[in-house]
Design goal:
This protein is an alpha+beta fold and 465 residues long. The chain has 13 helices and 22 strands. Helix 3 packs across helix 4, helix 4 runs antiparallel to helix 5 and helix 5 packs across helix 6.
Length: 465
């Protein structure tokens, strides 16, 4: 069986206390694709001296096309994928499982349940994978969420048309979104019924594109319509350790997110919200985690609120995902154990420890403010070059700039697009210094994107990851 030949590596620089805990076992990393986020976690595991194995949902017909001998899994069938992992673990003992992104989490939950490894419950992983299911659970728990309905896209979308939208029991404006895509992909605000119909057809066409249909997810047959929630949007990074919530960071999103598309750009922490409002946010997250049944693993959440003095008003939960922050954004977070204040570790390293059952409760975020800008897509087309990197790096407090787009790559803006050209990172004493540095550095960058021929752009809409 191919799984029995799965490659694992043991790197130098072993951490004795980690290895004493897991012995000769292996850390299994599950990911939809082996991209830069996967590499960041692999590097963190390698620094701890861990053996690593990989499981992805790449084509099972091709024989190891990337040369990493990753276990080929079908994440759309989590029961079968978990069975394969359990079978693999018979010959290669697993000390923990890490799931990167939303798609592998139901598989990881089932495999860990069968192997007796700590992870979120199967029910929680399944609910967080589907925005309709998670909204339903939170609503039944009495938590404040936007009013919502789920609408089937219908076969008419195959011809770029759609049946008229049914009656929606709450007033405009609305936000229409897919149930399982992330990163604001396919999310559109509609202020009128005409805009809603256009958005419905546009999202339906996206869900019928080959790169979405190949995922074979039942949730792709529906679009969710929610009432638009005004206010300040924040992101929360947290983890649950054996049932105990630990809030790691509240990120301010200083750029307005009012639509019609919701391209996220700047994340800055610590939050500049009043302390009382932050306490209310943490309490709300704790209630949501308990309602969903999240037990052990990372959490990424989104909320919206309005401020009334020091208090959060109309605090609404927008999302609770059983995963960590995406892309390279994790680099904006570093932690230390006050008992060893000189050593900083990454979010990836913290989550590797958590996956192995190690205690993380003593770790706290560094004292410096930090932030990241997801570089906006200036226009759809072919990425050719970027100018001004040295000038941008010269901005005070800028730590690094990572351009992840490849030369000749087709880049597509939201709502159809699914990735950013790169990331800018900054650290400073105060959050406002971080935000200012990120904005100034971005102004000094110039991405060169040339228009794609119509036939190539149409192809890109159906093939980009």
């Amino acid at each position: 069986m191919l799984a029995s030949g799965l490659l694992f590596t043991l790197l130098p620089g072993m951490s004795r206390n980690i290895l004493e805990t897991v012995g000769s076992s292996t850390l299994l990393i599950l990911a939809s694709k082996l991209g830069y986020q996967t590499r960041a976690f692999a590097e963190a595991a390698g620094e701890l001296g861990l053996r690593m194995a990989y499981g992805t949902d790449r084509c099972h017909i091709l024989e190891d096309p990337w040369g990493d001998q990753a276990l080929p899994l079908h994440f759309e069938n989590p029961e079968e994928s978990a069975r394969q992992i359990v079978e693999f673990a018979r010959t290669t003992p697993l000390g923990g499982v890490l799931a990167l992104g939303d798609r592998p989490t139901p598989t990881a939950a089932r495999a860990c349940a069968a192997l007796g490894l700590p992870f979120h419950s199967v029910a929680a992983a399944d609910a967080c994978r589907d925005k309709y299911r998670s909204r339903t659970v939170l609503h039944e728990a009495g938590l404040r969420i936007p009013p919502f309905v789920r609408v089937p896209i219908g076969k008419e979308v195959e011809t770029r048309r759609a049946a008229p939208l049914p009656s929606v029991p709450f007033p405009l404006p609305w936000v229409l979104k897919p149930l399982s895509l992330s990163g604001s992909r396919g999310v559109i605000r509609a202020n009128t019924l005409e805009e809603a119909q256009t958005a419905f057809e546009r999202i339906g066409a996206l869900l019928r594109s080959p790169d979405i249909r190949v995922l074979r997810e039942a949730s792709s047959e529906f679009i969710q319509i929610e009432q638009y929630v005004p206010g300040i949007e924040i992101a929360l990074e947290a983890l649950v350790e054996r049932g105990q919530l630990k809030l790691l960071a509240i990120f301010d999103k200083p750029s307005p997110l009012t639509g019609p598309y919701f391209e996220e750009t700047i994340y800055v922490t610590p939050s500049r919200l009043p302390l009382r409002a932050q306490q209310e946010i943490e309490q709300k997250l704790s209630k949501a985690v308990a309602a969903l049944g999240l037990e052990h693993g990372p959490i990424h959440a989104e909320m919206r609120l309005e401020l009334e003095g020091e208090t959060a008003r109309n605090l609404s939960i927008m999302e609770v995902a059983a995963r960590c922050i995406g892309g390279l954004c994790a680099r904006s977070l570093r932690f230390f154990d006050p008992r060893m204040p000189g050593e900083l570790i990454s979010l990836e390293s913290l989550l590797v420890r958590l996956a192995l059952g190690q205690s993380t409760r003593h770790f706290v975020r560094e004292q410096q403010a930090s932030g990241v800008m997801m570089i906006p897509v200036p226009a759809g087309g072919i990425y050719e070059d970027v100018a001004g990197i040295e000038r941008a790096l010269g901005v005070e407090h800028i730590e690094s700039i990572e351009i992840t787009a490849k030369l000749g790559q087709r880049i597509i803006p939201l709502p159809e697009g699914s990735s950013y050209p790169g990331f800018i990172f900054a650290r400073a004493a105060e959050p406002q210094q971080v935000e200012g540095a990120l904005r100034e550095a971005h102004q000094r960058l110039e991405l060169k994107v040339v228009p794609a021929l119509p036939v190539l752009l149409a192809h890109a809409l159906t093939t980009e990851p």
